[in-house]
Amino acid sequence: MIVLHPNTKQYNAINGYKYKSSELLFVKDGSERWIVGLNVLSDPKFSAIHDQLEQLERIEYTPIPEEEI
Length: 69
Prior knowledge:
This protein has 69 residues and is an alpha+beta fold.
């Protein structure tokens, strides 16, 4: 699965962006990289930052390993 990954400058600029009750928050994948799903590119709530989102690197998602009990 392909996801969006920001560099530090991009992360600081758009993480936490809010539009009404919607908020863009990056989460870490299994490789400890900040990511967000591609669906934000077509979400009208984030249209104001669409150009910035388009500039994020597209990477393969690394699943978070299940912890052994």
